[in-house]
Amino acid sequence: MDWTALFLSIQLGLATLLILLPVGIITGRWLAYKQFFGKPLIQGLLALPLVLPPTVLGYYLLVAFSPARGLGLWLQETFDTTLVFNFQGLVLASILFNLPFAIEPMQRAFAAIPREIREAGACCGMNPVRILYKIELPLAWPGIAAAMILTFAHTLGEFGIVLMVGGNIPGETQTIAIAIYDRVQIFDQQGASVMSLSLLLFSILTISLTYWFSARSERKYF
Amino acid sequence: MNENISDPAVQVNLQQRHPIPLAVQLHCRSGELLALVGPSGSGKTTILRAIAGLYQVRQGHVVCQQEVWQDSATKLFLPTHRRQVGLVFQHYALFPHMTVLDNIQLALQAMPKAKRPHRALQLLQMVHLRGLENRYPNTLSGGQQQRVAVARALARQPRILLLDEPFSAVDQVTRRKLQRALISLKQSLAIPIILVTHDLEEAGLLAERMALLYRGEVLQTGSPEFIAAHPENATVARLMNQQNLFTAEVLEQHIRSQTTRLLWRGRELQAAYQPRFPVRQRCCWVIQSSSILLHRRDRPSRGERENPLHGEIVEYLESNGLANMLVQIDRQSSTSLVVNVPLHVARRNRLALHERIGISLLKQGIHLMPYQSLRRQD
Question: Does one domain contain both B231 and B269?
Fold first, then answer.
């Protein structure tokens, strides 16, 4: 078992979660309640990672952040930093790639709250922030939790985009999925199988948890 | 507004063309229940939402207990949470993740935390729900949920109580019970109450005044009985479910006998004197079935001389202690009138399908309105 790779994956997952939790809540809620011109386009863009091969997204990130030109060059010159082949770059790629997994379940969770219930909150004298944490979040939390689990699990399994943006640097960008690939390349069947099995069990656990949460949210109140 | 208003607690003026057309001017006094009645899509709920601040009408002026809630002239629009308003939603909108007590306590934010449970229990007592404070909304019956919603709406000590079809989601027996509860509650509240309903009977039972709405416009305001007997036009008469609605020609305005004579499908009718309708011009007229008198079969009775007519019962239905009949006066033009008599009267006179009967249209009950085409009946 390659513990360094596993810890790196977990670190990556947690960093992604930490950023996607507020982003997902704000964006999901906004998409659930607001009607505006161009909404389908925004939803389409957010869902793109679902259909796009991870390598394609990874390729464009690699091009965009290449220190040789454009944005990458600007980052290099202004902040003396780069987003390719390091952990920060991986986090950014992971966030972009996980946007639909975080936002869509949260959007559905917010959309499932009847408008009248939110309005009743306002009639009780609650301002929008209070309505958010007294009514919306408690009612949407199974959906939010499911989105977080899904995002975390998905981060552990990322391969194509990690390889494109981060490469394969142990301790910096070599996640568990890459480590498995690495082991197979050097014919370490046992190492590969132990890590694959752990990832498989973890995935089964998280997916079941996700379904349990969504069943709970549907059953409990409405 | 042409009525005598003594300090109306709430005054509402809403005008807009799009997206929902509205032309509404309303007021309601403290302790008064005003019913907004109209078919679906007439804008009743939108008006309620505009008063609560849940919907912003383009040109609006809403004043409640001397506090301006909306004034589009100065671009003032107070958000809902800053309007002291109690709203009972059609499906109650209780917070499903909170107990009954917490649902009510959430609306008691203006009160110190320590006092809230006591006040919430008092409110539950008021709606006769003590003992259910720790239950969740999905374990309550429809009637109980409605009462929790009423208690929650009153918790804020609202300046106005708004009820959006609060009886539509419960069965008939519960509805009667809740309506009685509202009547007794109203007596203890010194705030204006606005009730949205499409049920005329409910409006008649609960409201001192009603505003009849049609396509976003208030057609007539007044007591339910007054509007039913004196609709301003045929559209109002129809919306008030007046079935005896016809057109006629004015033959004569006779001031001395206080009579307006009409020509109705070859017959002459005498109506109460309504001089604003010119002679030889067409008009619409309506009569409530309570102003149609049945001639007794055994002996003549008072009122038989007023507009006597004879016809055949072509439809006969018994319901709610009344015999509802369609009486055909003229077979050729299939002219018929809806006549309702108490069931015991119908039985005593042995009324049945295809029987011939005599009826009188009481002169005072014939109400004239400006002419308009009545495609459905005429």
Answer: no
* Separation CA B127–CA A34 (nearest Å): 37
Closest-CA residue of chain A to B136: A221
Note whether A120 contacts B152, CB cutoff 8 Å: yes
Residue contact A126–B106, C-beta within 8 A: yes
**pLDDT tens per residue, chain B (378 residues)?**
334 445 789 999 999 998 999 999 999 999 999 999 999 889 999 999 999 999 999 999 999 999 999 999 999 999 999 999 999 999 999 999 999 999 999 999 989 999 999 999 999 999 999 999 999 999 999 999 999 999 999 999 999 999 999 998 888 899 999 999 999 989 888 899 999 999 999 999 999 999 999 999 999 999 999 999 999 999 999 999 999 999 999 999 999 999 999 999 999 999 999 999 999 999 999 999 989 999 887 776 666 788 999 999 999 999 989 999 999 998 887 889 999 999 999 999 999 999 999 999 999 999 999 999 887 543
**C-beta atoms of B89 and A116 within 8 A:** yes
> Does B5 map to a domain?
no
Best A115, A123, A134 residue to mutate vs chain B (most B CBs within 10 Å): A123
Question: Model ipTM?
Answer: 0.84
- Using a CB–CB cut-off of 8 Å, the residues of B that contact A are 52-54, 79-81, 84-87, 89-91, 93-97, 106-107, 109-110, 138, 152-153, 155-156
B196 and B69 inside one domain: yes
B91: nearest CB among A116, A123, A138? A116
Give the pLDDT band of residue A71 (cuts 50, 70, 90).
confident
A145/A210 Cα distance (integer angstroms): 8
Whole domain around residue B156: which residue ranges?
10-238
Q: Is residue B2 part of a domain?
A: no
Q: From the list B89, B110, B138, which residue is nearest A120 (CB)? A: B89
B54 and B96 in a common domain: yes
Q: Which residues of B touch A123 (CB under 8 A)?
A: 52, 54, 80-81, 85-87, 107, 153, 156
Contact B89 A119 (CB under 8 A): yes
Residues B181 and B227 in one domain: yes
In the Cβ-directed half-sphere of A100, how many Cα atoms lie within 13 Å? 12
- Residue A123 at interface with chain B, using a CB cutoff of 8 Å: yes
Residue B57 CA: distances (Å) to CA of A93, A151, B49, B51: 45, 42, 10, 10
- Inter-chain residue contact B79 with A220, CB threshold 8 Å: no
Tally of domains within chain B: 3
Give the Cα separation of A41 and A44 in Å (integer): 5
Q: Which of A149, A150, A131 is nearest to A139 (CA)?
A: A131
Q: In what order do the strands lie in the sheet with B22-28?
A: B76-77, B67-71, B59-64, B10-16, B22-28, B217-222, B209-214, B33-37, B193-197, B160-164, B85-88
Number of domains in chain A: 1
Q: Side chain identity at A186, as an amino acid letter?
A: I
